[in-house]
Here is the input.
Amino acid sequence: MVGSDAALPLPWLEAPLREGLQRSAHALLLHGPEGVGQFDLALALAQGWLCEAPPPFPPERRPCGHCASCRLVQARSHPDLMVLVPEALRETLGWASGEGDEGGGERASKAKPSKEIKVEAVRTAVAFAQTTSARGRGKVVVLHPAERVNPIASNTLLKTLEEPPGAARFILSCGAPEALLPTIRSRCQSLPLGLPARAAAIEWLSGRGVADPAVLLAACGGQPMQALQWSEEGVDARLWRQLPTLIRRGEATPFAAWPLPRLVEALQKLCHDALCAALGAVPRYFPPDAIDGGGDTAALTGWSRELARVARHAEHPWTPGLMVDALIEQARASLTTRAASRP
Here is the structure.
């Protein structure tokens, strides 16, 4: 168990943390569903590997949380830790700009924040890994999400994983390991993460003030961190329950302020559950009583294909109001098309 001063905010990560700290690999690949805390686990592992708690502090309880090294990690200023995250995710992850952040000299530009980890950042990390440890506990490089490493940067990373520096360890954290080069995956030890137990996730969300957490947890596919983010952004259980009814009425106003990718994701989940209900299966994301089971499967299948097409371009700078109206109207038409009567 981790030290009392370093308790993880996500209780379901304690077992993976203990397992990861026992690994001796130079590269560890954390992978699992998004929204379960891969980034939190990656930082906890880095902190544990760099922890300087002296004997007789048990190694299995690292990180201690109160030694100088742990405090430097918590302050985002450890000289032997480099974290590479896309510029667009810094604010979301709460990781301040620093030497290891993606972007380099591009920070001062007015360009849209990059969603990739670029080759310049990976080259900087490689050079960092090859230098002597400042505090003598080795060096750690965290890449998150690793699937955002662009193709050129992936080749640079591969060369480093083929011939790793002696005192450096790499943590690759991702939600889509299949997006990584097979040669990168083969050079990392895999540490899979599953969804937390439903009861534990509901208890954690309740402790953070989420009302009716079971509904939002289901809405997010069992991913509690995403459910918490949705709650903080104003998507509550009551609105989620009403969403199918509002869509069938063609009411777009409640969703006008939603980011387009969020709306498309919600509509895809509604389409999935409507198809489940039409085929006699149990809905996954919405309460069963919120889904009308009389939809036409052909109309719903066509809607699903169209939503998949829109999702590929959801970040495009469309005219938001017109796009939301179009999506809601298409959803209303698909949901209210009734199955043809059969003799």
The chain has a mean pLDDT of 87.
